[in-house]
Amino acid sequence: MHSIHEIERLYQQHGAALVLFGTTIVGERNMAQDAVQQAFLRLIETGSLAHAADPKAYLFACVRNQILNESKVR
């Protein structure tokens, strides 16, 4: 399981790129920011990053999936 400090470091390293990535998918920065926050919140709650071979790729997939799931709800 990753510590909160490791997750914070990942957010600092990749957060801006994840928001930009999400914005290109959904077209709205606010929705992309929400998706990034939800992805990191889920990491903190579940510790699921421990099983990821490539944490950066895993984060991008999490954000994409979060956006797609939100799109289904709307």
Walk me through the topology.
Layout: H1 4-26, H2 29-46, H3 55-73
Helix pairs in contact: 1-2, 1-3, 2-3
Mean pLDDT: 91
Tally of individual domains: 1
Q: What characterizes the major β-sheet?
A: none
Give the N-to-C terminal Cα separation: 33 Å
Descriptive report:
The chain has three helices and no strands. The chain is mainly alpha-helical and 74 residues long. The protein has one domain. 19% of the residues are buried.
Please outline what is shown here:
With 74 residues, the chain is mainly alpha-helical. 81% of the residues lie in helices and 0% in strands. It has helices at residues 4-26, 29-46, 55-73.
Features of the shown structure:
3 helices, globular, 0% strand, 74 residues, mainly alpha
